[in-house]
Design a protein that fits this description.
The complex is a heterotrimer of chains A (377), B (323) and C (511).
Chain A (H helix, E strand, L loop, with lengths): L9 H26 L4 H13 L2 H26 L7 H19 L5 H30 L3 H23 L23 H6 L12 H18 L1 H11 L1 H6 L4 H18 L2 H8 L10 H11 L4 H24 L6 H16 L5 H23 L1
Helix pairs in contact in A: 1-15, 2-3, 2-14, 3-8, 3-11, 3-13, 3-14, 4-5, 4-6, 4-11, 4-13, 5-6, 5-11, 8-9, 8-14, 9-11, 13-14, 13-15, 14-15
Chain B lengths: L2 H31 L7 H19 L2 H25 L4 H24 L16 E2 L13 H9 L2 E2 H19 L1 H11 L1 H6 L4 H27 L11 H11 L4 H21 L12 H16 L21
Antiparallel strand pairs in B: 1-2
Helix pairs in contact in B: 1-5, 1-6, 1-9, 1-10, 1-11, 2-3, 2-4, 2-9, 2-10, 3-4, 3-9, 6-7, 6-11, 7-9, 10-11, 10-12, 11-12
Chain C lengths: L3 E12 L2 E12 L3 E5 L6 H8 L7 E6 L2 E3 L4 H6 L2 E4 L11 H6 L8 H19 L14 H14 L4 E5 L7 H16 L3 E6 L2 H7 L2 E6 L2 E7 L5 H9 L17 E11 L5 E11 L3 E5 L6 H8 L7 E6 L2 E3 L7 H6 L2 E4 L3 H5 L6 H4 L11 E2 L2 E2 L1 H14 L16 H13 L5 E5 L7 H16 L3 E5 L3 H7 L2 E6 L2 E6 L5 H8 L4 H6 L1
Parallel strand pairs in C: 3-8, 3-9, 6-7, 7-8, 13-20, 13-21, 16-19, 19-20
Antiparallel strand pairs in C: 1-2, 1-4, 4-5, 9-10, 11-12, 11-14, 14-15, 17-18, 21-22
Helix pairs in contact in C: 8-17, 14-15
Classes of the chains: A mainly alpha (377), B mainly alpha (323), C alpha/beta (511).
Chain lengths: 377, 323, 511
């Protein structure tokens, strides 16, 4: 069973099949809309209009997309080394500590462009630290990384509740959150970017961390395809035996990969904390770590695929809000269903339609061969 | 309130919160011992809880509710089975997908059908499980020690509670004393051995997945038909993952599972009890530490620092005939 | 002719382009031990898997006791009275012997009754065939020989009249093998029919009544064992192939480049795969290691290359030790002048999903030439790859093509180019031409000779005896993990064949 499926042209492999999988996921989601007694086409209209119809809507869409680019990249980096990091949620949550500490320390004395780099380092550091232990346990003790990262998500959640209710909360306040940051702890909006296209960002929290996300995507691309470390990660991901033959250290690569992955997940915290709320609240991650799995699967772990996939999910989150406004029986939880369906059809069932498509192409090439023959004669 | 009474109350609530864990962890036991990893316990439980709440509310029958819970949970299990057994997809990815699909659709459908903010209508007496009081429970309560144990600890639970505890020896019996169990354990260790013995690996694994569905159905029904009167959105609140942790902590063995679930349930009950009260000798313990303890313990176990949890050998690997 | 237990008529089976069984006809007489012999890849195991219902034949017929039967799955085979002892045991390791024996033949839904019955039945089988084993022992705690006995008991428990054993002695010590043969004799005397698949001539001669020879998917001959000879079988097995001719001059061996001393390697189960092997490899010579696959050659190569840890012994490269029993690092060995063409290019030597140029640096990616700090110097990598492609005539000449899209011969050239072109002192090569087309074979052989003439030391492992004879200056023959003899390349095929089959080796090693 070394080659279970016949080879297909590149555009089918990387274009058609993912699109079919995505289309099926949306079709099933459409069925749910029907089940609820609404018109799926109308829902689709509200979705797209709600996501792109106005500058403000677009701003929200891109704000969400920023978050998902980070978590999607985090999952993708681990995938390349053959690791399944399901702990992006916890790593992002803990990464928030780094952001909060930088802001609480300097927000009143320094401008944002001094605080921001420190917050980036802090978020990446805390996220990486939270991923280090599962990586180390996998490398040295053989504990299954999927299970440990799940466990670490819950541990992170308890840890953060503790920190936010006991340590980081200002005295005398009841709400489990840090104090609101001064100007130095708030990221400027990218209103000028949308203004170029004649759009008004309005109240949307579309901020500079979007640019950081794009830079991160570029860096991940460089890391995976242009550095020695990335080369080693990919070798291990494709073939551990070849990695051993080439003299690469599996445990070293595992630990480093997990820390990079965790660091990227941690940087997600910048967007909601410094970019929107100007404080760290309970549960600010809101499942973005898991959305990262869907984004990475859909984007085939390539930054060029992850960015559009993240925008798609940003669209779902923002447009979904709009649908629930226009069609009360469809709440934002519709997004969660679509997300699950995308993970199911683009991930677990990614090969479901492949045999049929392969047959189709085999038939066509045979027919083409026959035609060529008759023409020749 | 004397110390003994506190203990009884604590243990009583331990039992109450352990029941869904026991059902779900036993459900995981059946699939994982057959070589199919399942992190979708949470989703199946949630789907079952919703189905139970919805159907019981509509039909006014607790039994129809239970039946619906089991059927929905089996259906979800079959999706997981189709992805991981037939399509040989990634079992982790499939489990994650199911958790999301259920988390979203229970809210959407619940809101569309009942319009109560994702809840199902509160269930009346006839359409939910009632506690069972043992004979003479009230009259013997005054007897020291044994009285409260009989009246408060053993008596006064839901039918499903007793079923859950009965399921422990029953699961053990099925796995270790029946032909089906022997084959199921074998297929999780070496599917080649099962295949060459003339048994269908695929059908066997599907049956294991169905067993998992049935038990998750009970877990969900307990949540919405017994523990509370109706479905509340997201009511599993991570119990599926705790059950998964308990399953690993118990090293995939039925009686250990019961103990692990009781331990994790006890920590939960204790955390609620201790809120704000210092513990003798240790002093104030953060509630969050108690809540995280099951996960921390499982990680330590997985790291091999307290014994070694060895998962079924063929777990997570789709069966492909060798060439 | 009513004493035929099994008859195969015109069995044909292909796996994609591989024609594994071509129109096989075979008759096995009742109450005999029938050997099936052939080299690795001759199609023996495929044929037996068809007989056991694991695969379906594309065409052909199976007759049991003269009646045609359709064997669609192992169940049907079991029902027809066929049992099989697989090469890799099909046992559940954390089950007891009793549980393994019962699995699939439990009698009733509830185990209790079945267990009691199985215990009695097992006792009877033990008595009847002298197959003692503790029914309550866990498989993982049993030595390999006893595990195999459980496999035999499994078949007998299912009332098999026909027993197929696939390479049963591969994992056994000589003493265990002798015991197995006594058991087989016993079974035969009780009227069972036994089919013994092996590539070891000694076993065929020692125990079988009749022997059939397979070669390249075809059944080439059936002989009565008493009327044939080892020489005849060896020749039938190998066939009279067109001798490969490679132009090469005298070797001019220089100083010792690689010194192997008392090297011993065990596999994961603790079975000794390389047993106290010693030899020297000099500059400017090719030493070939001949042997039937599975006799320790692979493990020997891997231990020298630092991929597999040895239990004891030493290896010196250019006079300096390699830490073969500890932390030998393949990357460091490359720097010290050891190049390694692994046997399995699909999983070890190449990453099939990589572009050609990415595989061209596998293992040499630390080389400063390919790096700009932490970054890969893509231009340098592609430039080098293009040069190699031209020199080795790799087609299609596209360094950016996915490696999986190259043919076997071109994939092998990618590996060879990578390992040869950095001027290593020592080159160790496993199966240089497996799955490679004829044109490429010639090219690869020429290159290997050129390496020798440049004064490199070459260690060559191949299951193709012709290749070994054509290229080597000295030939070492491995059997059961030991070097059982050294020969000149002009030794006859028959002489080497006997050594490879372990027939004469025992004597020589003892001397």
């Amino acid at each position: 069973m070394s080659t279970p499926y016949a080879k297909l042209p590149g555009w089918v492999e990387y274009g058609l099949i993912p699109l079919i999988n995505l289309a099926v996921a949306f079709l099933v989601a459409g069925l749910v809309v029907l089940l609820v007694g609404e018109n799926p086409l109308e829902a689709a209209y509200h979705l797209i209009n709600g996501a792109f119809g106005r500058g403000e809507y677009l701003g929200f869409t891109l704000y969400y997309a920023t978050t998902f680019i980070f978590t999607g990249l985090a999952v993708a980096v681990a995938f390349h080394a053959g690791l399944f990091n399901i702990g992006g949620e916890g790593q992002a949550y803990v990464g928030g500590i780094g952001v909060a500490l930088a802001c609480l320390w300097l927000d009143q004395t320094m401008p944002w462009y001094v605080v921001f780099p420190l917050a980036i380092l802090g978020s990446a550091f805390f996220g990486a630290a939270w991923a280090f232990l599962p990586g180390w346990l996998q490398a040295k003790r053989g504990s299954h990384i999927v299970i440990t990262t799940i466990m670490f998500n819950f541990i992170a959640s308890s840890l953060m509740v503790y920190l936010l209710t006991r340590v980081l909360k200002p005295l005398g306040s009841m709400a489990p959150q840090t104090r609101t940051f001064a100007e130095g702890g708030q990221l400027p909006k990218l209103d000028w970017l949308l203004a170029i296209f004649g759009l008004d960002v309005g109240t949307a929290p579309f901020n500079v961390s979007f640019l950081l996300a794009l830079v991160a995507a570029l860096c991940v691309w460089l890391l995976i395809w242009r550095t020695k470390l990335g080369y080693e990660m990919r070798t291990m991901g494709h073939s551990p035996s070849a990695a051993r033959y080439a003299g690469m250290s599996e445990s070293r690569i595992t630990v480093i990969t997990m820390m990079i992955s965790g660091g990227l997940a941690g940087m997600m915290a910048l967007n909601p904390i410094m970019g929107e709320q100007a404080r760290m609240q309970l549960d600010f991650v809101q499942g973005a770590g898991f959305v990262g799995i869907a984004v990475a699967l859909m984007g085939r772990s390539h930054p060029a695929g992850i960015i559009p996939a993240a925008v798609l999910f940003g669209m779902l989150y923002q447009g979904g809000a709009e649908i629930s406004f226009e069609m009360p029986s469809i709440s934002r939880d519709m997004i969660v269903i679509i997300q699950g369906l995308v993970i199911l059809f683009a991930g677990a069932l990614e090969n479901m339609f492949r045999p049929a498509i392969t047959r189709l192409f085999a038939m066509q090439s045979r027919r083409a061969a026959v035609v060529a023959q008759t023409k020749g004669a | 309130m004397d110390f003994f009474h506190v203990i009884v109350v604590l243990l009583e609530s331990t039992i109450r919160v352990s029941v869904p864990l026991i059902f779900a962890a036993l459900a995981g036991l059946f699939t994982e011992r057959a070589g199919v990893f399942d992190i979708g316990l949470e989703g199946k439980m949630l789907g079952a809880a919703f189905a139970a709440g919805a159907v019981a509310a509509v039909t006014q029958s607790v039994w129809m509710g239970l039946l619906a819970a089991i059927l929905i949970s089996i259906a979800l299990s079959l999706v997981h089975g189709y992805a991981s057994i037939t399509q040989r997809g990634n079992q982790i990815v499939s489990g994650v997908a199911i958790n999301f699909i259920v988390a979203g659709s229970t809210v959407i459908l619940g809101e569309a059908w009942f319009r109560q903010g994702g809840r199902t209508p509160a269930l009346g007496e006839g359409s939910r499980f009632q506690t069972i009081t043992f004979p003479f429970a009230d009259s013997v309560r005054e007897i020291p020690i044994l009285g409260p144990i009989y009246s408060d600890l053993l008596s006064g639970h839901f039918l499903l509670t007793y079923v859950a505890f009965a399921m422990v020896p029953i699961s053990w019996w099925i796995l270790y004393r029946t032909r089906f169990g022997l084959r199921l354990r074998a297929v999780g260790e070496n599917p080649g051995a099962v295949d060459t013995a003339g048994i269908s690996v695929i059908w066997l694994r599907y049956r294991a997945v169905i067993c998992c569905g049935i038990l998750c159905g009970f877990a969900g029904a307990y949540l919405s038909l017994a523990m509370t009167a109706g479905f509340v959105k997201g009511m599993t609140a991570g119990k599926g993952y705790i059950a998964l942790a308990a399953l690993i902590f118990a090293k995939w063995r039925p009686f250990n599972i019961m103990l692990a679930c009781l331990l994790f349930g006890f920590l939960d009950a204790l955390a609620i009890r201790l809120q704000g009260n210092p513990l003798p000798l240790i002093g104030q313990v953060p509630v969050q530490l108690m809540q995280a303890l099951p996960y921390i313990l499982t990680v330590i176990l997985l790291a091999g620092f307290i014994g070694k949890a060895i998962p079924p050998k063929a777990g997570g690997v789709p069966y492909v005939k060798e060439r | 002719m009513d004493n035929i237990a099994i008859e195969l008529r015109g069995i044909d089976k292909s796996f994609g382009p591989v024609h594994a069984n071509k129109n096989i006809n075979l008759k096995v007489r009742k109450g005999t031990i029938h050997g099936i012999i052939g080299e690795n890849g001759a199609g023996k195991s495929t044929l037996m898997s068809i007989l056991y219902g694991f695969y379906q034949a594309d065409s052909g017929e199976i007759l049991v006791d003269g009646k045609p039967v359709a064997i669609r799955d192992p169940n049907a085979a079991i029902a027809a009275g066929i049992g099989m002892v697989h090469q890799h045991f099909m046992l559940v390791e954390n089950f007891t012997v009793l549980e393994n024996v019962m699995l699939g033949a439990e009698d009733s839904q509830i185990l209790n009754k079945g267990i009691a019955k199985a215990r009695v039945e097992l006792k009877r089988l033990e008595r009847e065939y002298a197959l003692e084993v503790n029914p309550d022992a866990l498989i993982e705690e049993l030595p390999v020989g006893l595990q195999q006995r459980v496999e035999i008991l499994k078949a007998l428990y299912r009332r098999a009249d026909i027993l197929i054993l696939d390479e049963p002695t591969g994992v056994l010590t000589p003493a265990e093998a002798d015991h197995l043969f006594r058991v087989l004799e016993q079974l035969k005397s009780q009227g069972k029919t036994i089919i013994l698949i092996t590539h070891k001539l000694r076993e065929i001669m020692a125990i079988t009544d009749e022997v059939s020879v397979m070669r390249r998917g075809e059944m080439v001959a059936t002989r009565t064992t008493a009327e044939t000879s080892v020489e005849e079988l060896a020749e039938l097995m190998v066939g009279r192939r067109v001798l490969l001719r490679v132009e090469k001059g005298e070797a001019k061996p220089g100083e010792v480049k690689l010194a192997v001393e008392g090297l011993t390697v065990k596999d994961g189960r603790g079975v000794t795969m390389v047993d106290n092997v010693s030899f020297n490899l000099r500059a400017g010579e090719i030493v070939g290691i001949a042997g039937v696959a599975g006799n320790g050659q692979s493990e020997l190569l891997e231990a020298i290359a630092g991929i597999r840890r040895a239990v004891s012994g030493s290896v010196h490269l250019n006079g300096k030790p390699i830490d073969v029993t500890g932390h030998a690092d393949p990357a460091e060995l490359r720097d010290r002048g050891l190049a390694h063409v692994p046997e399995d290019r699909h999983h070890v030597g190449l990453v099939l999903k990589f572009e050609e140029c990415e595989n061209a640096i596998l293992g040499y990616h630390h080389d400063k030439r390919y790096l700009n700090g932490v970054f890969l110097n893509i231009d340098a990598i592609r430039e080098d790859a293009e040069k190699r492609i031209a020199e080795y005539d790799i087609r299609p000449p596209n360094p950016r093509l996915k490696t999986a899209n190259f043919s076997g011969g071109n994939q092998q050239k990618i590996v060879l180019a990578r390992e040869m072109e950095r001027g290593p002192d020592v080159l160790i090569i496993g199966q240089p031409t497996r799955g490679v087309d004829v044109g490429a074979i010639e090219f690869i052989h020429k290159r290997i000779i050129e390496m020798r003439d440049q004064g490199k030391a070459v260690l060559l492992v191949s299951v193709e005896l012709d290749e070994i004879r054509a290229l080597s200056d000295r030939i070492l023959v491995m059997f059961a993990g030991r070097v059982v003899g050294e020969r000149d390349p002009d030794a006859t095929e028959g002489e080497l064949g006997l050594l490879m089959a372990g027939v004469e080796g025992r004597k020589e090693a003892a001397e």
